[in-house]
Amino acid sequence: MPLSPDQAAEITAQRAQTTPTRRVTSPGMEERLYTAHPVLDHGFVRVIDYMGDDAAICQAARVSYGKGTKSVSNDEGLIRYLMRHWHSTPFEMCEIKLHVKLPVFVARQWIRHRTANVNEYSARYSILDREFYIPAPDALAAQSTVNNQGRGELLEGEEAARVLEMLKSDAMRAYDHYEAMLSTEGQKGLARELARMNLPANIYTQWYWKVDLHNLFHFLRLRADVHAQYEIRVYAETICEIVADWVPAAFKAFEDYRMGGVNLSATALDCIRRMLKGEEVTQENSGMSKGEWREFEGVLGG
Ligand SMILES: Cc1cc2nc3c(=O)[nH]c(=O)nc-3n(C[C@H](O)[C@H](O)[C@H](O)COP(=O)(O)OP(=O)(O)OC[C@H]3O[C@@H](n4cnc5c(N)ncnc54)[C@H](O)[C@@H]3O)c2cc1C
């Protein structure tokens, strides 16, 4: 359960309030505001606040006095131009503030993105909830045999049951001991800041995370990618859906140039030119290593 009834009621009450404003608003984002979008078994992403829209990107790019927008197609063309030519600062004029609930091991990957502002739930001050990420059957997989940094075949039957049982019972046991160790009225016990060290990395934490659109796109490019770990990728995919509603033109350009596009080396580009001229290009005469060639073939094969 990502939300308690009290938390859900607080969100409903906040969503019921509206305030007239002269600031730009994005209709798609207004719909999303405050709602918790569930991710994994107990996690969520919800938008707490945002600044700007597609027009704000154009306004900054043109350093306009008024709204700065021209026709929709003109603005879309400008946004595509900015994205294509890595003219990134206009995208930094848009900001988003998210409330994210996520397992600690996902938070460790997420926090590596340094160009954001973070405030995390304090487990020195508060007692953590008994909530642990336990993978669904379709995410319970063995080590990949081809990729050292990935997973391969799904676990089934007795093997899946054995692993799940260990994950669940270890989490519960660690939490029972955490609770039993805490200082309470009847015992000296341990401070919250110390007792928490006994908890496993699949316990959930929460934070507010604020980032500008340029750096958010960088995060999404890396974390919504197929090479990212599933457990962070599902958060990135949820954020992608939110961003698509917030700044539709910018997100479309991002999908096209960054998510869907590829960077080619000069060597790879040369190979394509030779192929277009009808030359038979192989790994041996390409100038690329076996690994590079495999990835290059993957790009050409779609
Ligand atoms: C698939 C995948 C596997 C990974 N595997 C590992 C791993 O095995 N081990 C590991 O430790 N990490 C790993 N990482 C994390 C990765 O190395 C980066 O730390 C992470 O993706 C954040 O990227 P970033 O630094 O570009 O992002 P941000 O911190 O958001 O920075 C954005 C950009 O700002 C600039 N920038 C920010 N801070 C500085 C700075 N101090 N100095 C100079 N420029 C700066 C850089 O241009 C940077 O690209 C992995 C990431 C991915 C996506």
Report on the architecture of this protein:
With 302 residues, this protein is of the alpha+beta class. It folds into 3 domains: 5-133 and 203-259, Gyrase A, domain 2 (2-Layer Sandwich), CATH 3.30.1360.170; 137-201; 266-300, no CATH class. The chain is 47% helix and 14% strand. It is built from 13 helices and 7 strands. The strands form 2 sheets. A 5-stranded antiparallel sheet has the order 1-2-3-7-4. It has a two-stranded antiparallel sheet with strand order 5-6. The protein is flat. The chain starts with a helix and ends with a helix. The mean pLDDT is 93. Bound molecules: flavin-adenine dinucleotide. Residues 112-115, 215, 218, 222, 227-228 line the site of flavin-adenine dinucleotide (FAD). Flavin-adenine dinucleotide binds next to helix 8. It catalyses: dUMP + (6R)-5,10-methylene-5,6,7,8-tetrahydrofolate + NADPH + H(+) = dTMP + (6S)-5,6,7,8-tetrahydrofolate + NADP(+). InterPro entries: Thymidylate_synthase_ThyX, Thymidylate_synthase_ThyX_sf. Residues 1-27 are annotated as: Disordered.
Distance between the termini: 39 Å
Bound small-molecule species: flavin-adenine dinucleotide
* Count of all domains: 3
Query: Main beta sheet: strand number and arrangement?
Result: 5 strands, antiparallel
Total helical elements: 13
